[in-house]
Amino acid sequence: MKTQRPLSLLSILFSAFLLHFHPTPTAGYYFYDTSATTTDTATAGGDTNFIRTSCEITLYPDLCYTSLSGYANAVQQDPARLARIAISVSLSKAKHMAAYVSNLSRKADYGAPPRAAAALHDCFTVFGDAVDQIRGSLKQMRRLGGSGDSLRFQMSNVQTWMSAALTNEDTCTDGFEDVPDGPLKSDVLDGVAKVEEVTSNALALVNSYVAKVTTP
Length: 216
Ligand SMILES: *[C@@H]1O[C@H](CO)[C@@H](O)[C@H](O)[C@H]1NC(C)=O
Fold this sequence. Notes:
This protein has helices spanning 6-19, 25-29, 48-55, 61-68, 72-75, 79-108, 114-142, 148-174, 183-214.
């Protein structure tokens, strides 16, 4: 976070919040490996069909397409890049949610019912773990190299971390089971559900890439 320009980051967070998880592609550029953009010019216009087809294997194909089609130039027809960019999109969503929950949690310490305050606090903790796991996955995707067993090992790390992130996000939701219904609860649960959807999509694209590199 420290390396971001604070003003831009704020406005990104703000617009991401307004758009409620339908990000503008340009906002996402701040969050993913910018080296991907250096080869953009090769396919001006990009290949959105490749993204549409790849998204069909995910649980939320429409969200997958809308959240990734803006990166067509960076993806080209490369399933590893598509998976990496999907991971970076899920990272920015998870980070935003962690910040949002942190804010709510701080406020809840003054006056919210204790069960809600505890659920928010736990949610912030598990979301922090999810952010670390997604960040680790992104790092690994940026460093992918080799082939065969070596590549399979690197990808199995990514699969493990992305599944763990999904589990942590789900744990946040579980923590609200005993919290009485209300705007705060539905706000958090709706937000978490959106993050889970993009995380699930990213994992599906990772799995799909793994299937491609492990079948000869
Ligand atoms: C969290 O609170 C800070 C300070 O009040 C604010 O600038 C930021 O936008 C908030 N973040 C989210 C994601 O709500």
